[in-house]
Amino acid sequence: MDLENLYLKRQSTREYDPTRQVADEDLLKICKLAKLAPSAVNSQPYILHAVTGDKAKEFAKFVQVLGANRWASACPAFIAVEEGKPAVVERLGQRLAKTEFVPIDIGILSAYIVLATEDMGIQSCIIGMRNEKGIAAFLGLDEKTKFPLVIALGYAKEGYPVREKNRRKFEDNVKLYK
Ligand SMILES: Cc1cc2nc3c(=O)[nH]c(=O)nc-3n(C[C@H](O)[C@H](O)[C@H](O)COP(=O)(O)O)c2cc1C
After folding, report:
1. Tens digits of residue pLDDT in 26-74
2. 127: CA distance to ligand 1 center in Å?
3. What is the number of other CB atoms lying within 10 angstroms of the CB of residue 174?
4. pLDDT computed for residue 1 by the predictor
5. Is the CB of 123 under 6 A from ligand 1?
């Protein structure tokens, strides 16, 4: 798909076809493509935990916090993004630039994930509402492990419309100087 159409077609999908699994090869290919994302000093401070099959059915409850994301019950796969430790040089860069680069790296990674996913004809939704402690316990990791984002993946239910993009006025977000 050409890039402009990909950007227009990618949307947060909140109705999945529970009968269609995402193939493991596709899930791993999405992770492989996402790993091409840029990161500060190429630190790549994250681990992608791809959860599918029966495990995904169990996992859904960790993104159903305070009544949010009920639709996730029908979602056949998730990628939980674990925040890794930045490389020493990234830590140094963060201190010098007085900027936390790790969340920025993870945001860019997530954009790569959802665009690669859509390009493969699979839909997605980035999820910020999540139970990090629950996810850590589920994956057998230390309870302090951070999961800044989870990404839901699956095939949209038949007839799920591609919505018109709802964005602020161009001038609100873009300034041109010359
Ligand atoms: C950091 C982040 C957290 C988000 N968390 C949720 C969430 O918990 N549940 C949800 O349904 N959508 C979530 N979204 C999706 C946004 O609501 C969505 O991207 C936005 O409304 C624009 O719509 P679009 O993605 O369809 O273009 C999140 C998006 C981002 C980038």
Report:
1. 999 999 999 999 999 999 999 999 999 999 999 999 999 999 999 999 9
2. 6
3. 8
4. 81
5. no
- Which stretches of the chain drop beneath a pLDDT of 70? none
- The answer, yes or no, to whether any atom of ligand 1 lies below 6 A from the CB of 129, is yes
Can you tell me the distance from the alpha carbon of 46 to that of 28, in angstroms, rounded to the nearest whole number? 15
Residue nearest to atom 11 of ligand 1 (CA): 69
Model pTM score: 0.97
- Tokens 């954009």 locate to 111
**Ligand 1, atom nearest to 63 Cα:** 8
> 12 CA distance to ligand 1 centroid (A)?
6
CB count in 10 Å sphere of residue 38:
11
Domain boundaries, the chain: 3-158
Note the CATH number of domain 3-158. 3.40.109.10
